[in-house]
Design brief:
- The protein has a single domain, classed as Mitochondrial carrier fold.
- The protein has 12 helices and no strands.
- It is 68% helix and 0% strand.
Length: 364
């Protein structure tokens, strides 16, 4: 999520670069997922089952009370295990694909250090598609685990592995990839959120006459919260459709309510109108906004730390100090100092895929 030294694609293949980004991303995502899991459970249940029984006053308070009374504290953390497990391949796949695409696109861009908004959107969307396809089975498990407490007529899954095994056996590949189409449609979320986040960071760095790498945690918090709220409101309906398609396959003895994506959209609109596509949206914003702030800010701080403590790649280190380069480097330093500062203040950062993440996360 950050602009470092050098040009795009220059270090994208280094082991150190991969470890620092993936490690920071996984740690930040795990922290955020644990913190907001109770709200994630409530959001998923509102998406799938609508308003809780005996609803009076605050939906969140009523839902929290119902869950703790019927399922205990453990019910508030259903689906946390697959969320954490999904983070590792999620970040690994995302960053690998994102860095490769970013390097390729930068070669065809205008030659500046800052990747254009359009190219940035393409790289983020491409990485998001690869991540969605890779991790969708784990998000199906997460949705099922979070909602199974509301259906006593269904044999519950005992664990993540148990759920994966049963879904594969009872529903096949189609069950593991239920909801994949709306998930892919949800890539529009990152295409909105990340460029907005990068542009806000760029603006604040210029305003404060500093570089993106030196922005304060408060600046990251503001940029991440505003961009997340905007992207969430615009793209939320796809989450409702995705959750309903993912959840319905669990009851093998019950006929599926929806025949597919189009059928689901039609039925939700016919029976619930436009508000049906925004069930749980308020809860989702309360959940995803702090989640985005925690994830993005933690990522930036952890990445800074890892960049300081991880030793440089031997190959990269040698390439930077070839004989004969020292004189040229010194000669260029004075003339390019001001230009470098101006460029770095607005360099496009490496992005966190909270979409799947979120979808990462907080997809999620």
């Amino acid at each position: 999520m950050r602009g470092g030294g050098g040009h795009y694609g220059e270090n994208s293949g280094s082991t150190r670069d991969f470890i620092s980004h993936a490690g920071a991303g996984a740690a930040a995502g795990a922290i955020a997922a644990t913190f907001v899991c109770p709200l994630d459970v409530i959001k998923t249940r509102l998406q799938v089952h609508g308003l809780p029984p005996g609803h009076k006053g605050s939906i969140i308070i009523t839902s929290l009370r119902n869950i703790t009374e019927t399922e205990g504290l453990r019910g508030l953390y259903r689906g946390l295990s697959p969320t954490i497990i999904a983070l590792l391949p999620n970040w690994a796949v995302y960053f690998t694909i994102y860095e490769r695409l970013k390097g390729m696109l930068h070669k065809n861009d205008d030659g500046s250090d800052q990747l254009s908004t359009g190219a940035n959107m393409i790289a983020a969307a491409g990485a998001g598609i690869a991540t969605s396809i890779t991790t969708n089975p784990l998000w199906v498990v997460k949705t099922r685990l979070q909602t199974q407490g509301m259906r006593p007529d269904v044999v519950p899954y005992k664990s993540v592995l148990s759920a994966l095994s049963r879904i594969t056996r009872e529903e096949g590949l189609r069950g593991l990839y239920s909801g994949i189409v709306p998930s892919l449609m949800g890539i529009s979320h990152v295409a909105i959120q990340f460029p907005a986040y990068e542009n806000m960071k760029c603006y604040m760095a210029k305003r404060d006459n500093t570089t993106v790498d030196k922005l304060s945690p408060g600046s990251f918090a503001i940029a991440s919260s505003v961009s997340k709220v905007a992207a969430s409101i615009i793209t939320y309906p796809h989450e409702v459709v995705r959750s309903r398609l993912q959840e319905q396959g669990q009851a093998g003895n019950r006929k599926a309510r929806y025949g597919g994506l189009i059928d689901c959209v039609k039925k939700v609109y016919q029976h619930e109108g436009l508000p049906g596509f925004y069930r749980g949206c308020a809860t989702n914003l309360i959940r995803t906004t702090p989640s985005a702030v925690i994830t993005f800010t933690s990522y930036e701080m952890i990445h800074r730390f890892l960049e300081r403590v991880l030793p440089p790649d031997e190959k990269h280190s040698h390439s930077q100090h070839e004989p004969g380069d020292a004189g040229a480097e010194e000669g260029a330093k004075a003339g390019s100092s001001q230009q470098s500062h101006r460029a770095q203040s607005c360099k496009t950062a490496h992005l966190v895929p909270l979409g799947n993440a979120e979808q990462l996360t907080a997809r999620r």
